[in-house]
Amino acid sequence: MSYTEATIQLLSPEGSLVESDAAAPYLEKITALSDAQLRDFHRQMVVTRRFDIEAGNLQRQGQLALWIPSLGQEAAQVGSGYAAREQDHIFPAYREHAVGRLRGLDPMRIIELLRGLSHGGWNPADTGNFHLYTLVIGSQALHATGYAMGLTLDGATATGDPETDAAVVAYFGDGATSQGDVSEALVFAASYQAPILFFLQNNHWAISVPVERQSRTPLYLRGTGFGIPSVQIDGNDVLASYAVSSTFLDAARAGGGPRFIEALTYRMGAHTTSDDPTKYREKEDERFWAERDPIARFETFLRAKGEADAFFAEVSSEAEDLAADVRARTLALGLPPADKMFAVYSEPHPLMDEQREWLAAYEASLEVPAHDGEAPA
């Protein structure tokens, strides 16, 4: 499935701005962006991709149990991630590395998760309201909807103050739309007019199942079927991702209810490092999407605006520095202390305290007491 007549695109694959009736409502969002913000779009996409590639290399070298690539989906993530405000809450699936970095998540937290050194938990209060990675397909849509309903009950949205009104973004993939949890989330979000943006990254493959086998119609129509205003965008167009997400989040914060975006993109790598996409993908499709690479497209746009080689060299150097730092920190990781297994909650919990004390007593019972004049065994 490629672009359709409904696809909103602001930046063509050739890197030029698109003038169309579909693009017109969103162009004001783009003209309001500063040159510094546009440069940072590019910076975030390039640096995240380099981190992603380095993490994949580390997995191949035995340093991680698994890696989940986001290669090719940088524009969808960076654009929508930028559209979220500080007070908004983000509920990711497990591939939103760029969004996590934008919200302040140290990428080493993802490394630790996929190395098996943590439960995968971080306190969203410490990561810009970026909630936990969710490996159970689609379940985060329900978590996000419940949180958005809570914002309404708490009076934290639709007050008329755009500087404080909050909304929620829920990320999921095309495969998740086949899960009941996503449909249930759409029901509750529509019924309670929850301030939430459902952001579907349609990367065309649910592991090895193509999207056309999952749905006979474009997936953005799923949201429409629940009475939620829904659109389909070019997910490899960072400007479209930003402008449409920003517009929809403004509406959600103002009390306009939920919104739904289907971002057409492509998973250029494997589903995870345990997957071999050469077994089920066609080279022709891969070439089609490689020609629409989100980073190359945006670089062409910036160069046409006058950005010089020095800027792109600086970004490349920053990306290499991050990759080197992640590699060094990964290789320096040791075994976590046993006490870390009880760090499940953000606040002290009596059950965890009880289990910690039991383990300490059990380990103490295994110690062999020393006899007079003899060294311990």
In short:
This protein is of the alpha/beta class and 377 residues long.
Could you explain how this protein is built, in words?
This protein has a six-stranded parallel beta sheet, with helices on both faces. Strands 5-6 form a two-stranded antiparallel sheet. Helix 2 packs antiparallel against helix 12 (294-304), helix 2 (35-60) runs parallel beside helix 13 and helix 6 (139-153) packs parallel to helix 7 (180-191). The protein contains 14 helices and eight strands. It is α/β, with parallel strands linked by helices. The protein is 44% helix and 9% strand. It has helices at 27-31, 35-60, 74-83, 97-102, 107-115, 139-153, 180-191, 211-214, 220-225, 238-253, 283-290, 294-304, 309-331, 350-365; strands at 7-8, 89-91, 168-173, 196-202, 205-206, 209-210, 230-234, 259-264. The chain is globular and about 90 Å long.
Question: Which features does this protein show?
Answer:
377 residues, alpha/beta, six-stranded parallel beta sheet, two-stranded antiparallel ribbon, 8 strands, 9% strand
Query: How far apart are the termini?
Result: 68 Å
Low-confidence parts: none
β-strand amount: 5-15%
Residue share in helix: 40-55%
Structural class determined from secondary elements: alpha/beta
- What's the story with the biggest beta sheet? 6 strands, parallel
Question: Helix and strand succession?
Answer: EHHHEHHHEHEEEHHEHEHHHH
Can you give the mean pLDDT? 95
Number of helices: 14
Whole-angstrom Rg: 23 Å
State the total count of DSSP E strands.
8
Shape: globular
Please state how the strands of the largest beta sheet are arranged side by side: 1-7-8-4-3-2
